[in-house]
Amino acid sequence: MTEKPPRTTLGILLMVGFSLIAPAMDASAKLLGDALAVGQIVASRFGIQAALLLPLALTMGWLHRPGFGESALHLLRGALILIATACFFQALRYMPIADAIAVFFVEPFILTLLGGLLLGESIGPRRYAACAVGFVGALFVIQPSFSEVGPVVLLPLVTAVCFAFYMILTRSMAVRINPISMQAYTGLAALLLVAPVLWVFDGSGVAPLDPSWPDQRELLLLGAVGLIATASHVCISFALKLAPASVLAPIQYLEIVGASALGYIIFGDLLDVPTLFGMALIVSAGLYVFARERRLERRPMPAP
């Protein structure tokens, strides 16, 4: 009897789905501009996620009562994605989407290293090379100007660190918790963390945390942020249940392709020759990982 290989191919496809639809959430948040507090946008994003997934998990019988240890992990996971999202949305108020994501893309390097250090995943030189090629491609797509944006450029770096730990925690929890339930609890945990902060700062005049009533357009954009975020993070939860984090890391570079496309369509950012060359490198790195993992998945496992 042979051991069933991991369903890495499906995990990679789900990561591709995440990478292509996640920039639409960022574009929706950027379209809100300074109209609403960042904390309010983040609260809506996680509130919608909890409102959609908690009833679904309950109806399907996936919901369970977490113990103290698991509850602490959900709170930690919620805090990580809450900080990551808030920092990134704040950065988008001053930076183009592709610039912010280009800075964020130190995250796959962090993720690959953490996958080996914390999860004991096997990381060969080819995966490191794929990450490096993808990162070089990201640099060709957008070279952030630190002199223009100043300290704001550090916000996507904070996002990268928090998101890498979020991915590692997701990977370790996804093997034993239904991904829908996990995302439902994460949305609830993040909402419970940010709601008291907004209540305390209501009327304070502190722009990032002082909430206000949205108009119809703002409500639609808030809804888009929440819906897209929920769909994309369900994809990433299932992806991490099916494939090692270090395998999925290079695939995330596809996110900058979607960001560049939306930047052109919505905000008029033009693509030049270096950008197109960078996109080719990013896609090539992702397709290489996909093709390699499919070959490994089809290889017969030796009998014990």
Describe this structure in words.
With 304 residues, the chain is mainly alpha-helical. The protein is built from 13 helices and no strands. The protein has helices spanning 8-32, 38-59, 68-92, 97-104, 107-119, 125-141, 146-149, 154-174, 179-201, 216-242, 245-248, 254-267, 273-298. It is globular. It starts with 7 loop residues before the first helix and ends in a 6-residue tail after the last helix. Residues 1-5 have low confidence and may be disordered.
Strand content: under 5%
> N-to-C terminal Cα separation, in Å?
8 Å
List the uncertain runs: 1-5
How many E-type strands? 0
Q: How are the elements arranged and paired?
A:
Elements: H1 8-32, H2 38-59, H3 68-92, H4 97-104, H5 107-119, H6 125-141, H7 146-149, H8 154-174, H9 179-201, H10 216-242, H11 245-248, H12 254-267, H13 273-298
Helix pairs in contact: 1-10, 1-12, 1-13, 2-3, 2-9, 2-10, 3-8, 3-9, 4-8, 4-12, 5-8, 6-13, 8-10, 9-10
Q: Which key terms come to mind for this protein?
A:
single chain, 304 residues, mainly alpha, 0% strand, globular, disordered N terminus
Task: Offer a concise description of the structure.
Helices cover about 75% and strands about 0% of the residues. With about 300 residues, the protein is mostly helical.
